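Quick one, tokens below. Sequence please?
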């Protein structure tokens, strides 16, 4: 049978497709990062009586074998993640890759993804962009030098609120005039976009006592946010 890749909401529980709900209702086996979180999510849609297969980093290898053997025994498996689209900066990639190599059909549903939502809402160029996953903790200078040598309209990164100031400081020493958008708590009550030059955004963040929630960082050398007078 098949592996279904099913995106789930980033925060707002209304952000799920009819097709995602129907597939989750019809499939018995759900592979997920956190089984308790998945259970709470599915309860919200009145989806019951599922068998959860925990699939998380760094235990992917053993679980991939189990999931593949289930699919070979004529079962469908749905892969979900804690939030958003499986395989984007989470362990989903390895399972999808293993299924493809084993000639197991993989069906991917479209749905919420933080990087796309943030990029579109940023107002920075969307015609060409590069996603670099989580901002690095080490060798920042060489990472950002390589990243900015890639000729695209915007760069997108995931970052934690605890590290965002440090990351922006590392970037500003390489690109002091770059335009920055912080997309925070997307689709949630405290959703916020902070836009400006890297200097302005750093000043604003430092003035705040604490930055909370989940963050996507979008950067561009084109200041498309400047008003024409
Ligand atoms: N698979 C997910 C997706 O489709 O976007 C991403 C998973 S990754 C483990 C988690 C990171 O995504 C967070 O640290 C944050 O950078 C970003 N993220 C997830 N939800 C978000 C939200 N509601 N608002 C802003 N960023 C979010």
């Amino acid at each position: 049978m098949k592996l279904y890749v099913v995106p789930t909401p980033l925060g707002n529980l209304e952000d799920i497709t009819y097709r995602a709900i129907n597939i989750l209702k019809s499939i018995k086996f759900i592979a997920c990062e956190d089984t308790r979180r998945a259970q709470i999510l599915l309860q919200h849609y009145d989806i019951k009586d599922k068998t959860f297969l925990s699939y998380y980093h760094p235990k992917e290898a053993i679980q991939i074998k189990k999931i593949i053997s289930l699919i070979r025994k004529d079962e469908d498996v749905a892969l979900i993640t804690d939030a958003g689209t499986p395989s984007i900066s989470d362990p989903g990639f390895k399972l999808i890759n293993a299924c493809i190599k084993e000639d197991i059909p993989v069906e991917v549903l479209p749905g919420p993804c933080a990087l796309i939502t943030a990029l579109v809402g940023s107002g920075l160029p969307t015609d060409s962009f590069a996603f670099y996953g989580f901002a690095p903790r080490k060798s920042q200078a060489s990472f950002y030098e390589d990243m900015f040598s890639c000729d695209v309209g915007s760069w997108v990164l995931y970052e934690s609120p605890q590290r965002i100031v440090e990351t922006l400081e590392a970037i500003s020493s390489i690109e002091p005039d770059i335009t920055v958008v912080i997309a925070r708590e997307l689709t949630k009550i405290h959703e916020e976009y902070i836009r400006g030059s890297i200097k302005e955004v750093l000043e604003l963040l430092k003035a705040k006592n604490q930055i909370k929630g989940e963050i996507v960082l979008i950067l561009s050398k084109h200041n498309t946010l400047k008003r024409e007078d």
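Residues 10-11, 81, 83-85, 88-90, 113-115, 158-159, 183, 185-188, 214-216 surround S-adenosylmethionine (CB under 6 Å). The radius of gyration is 20 Å.
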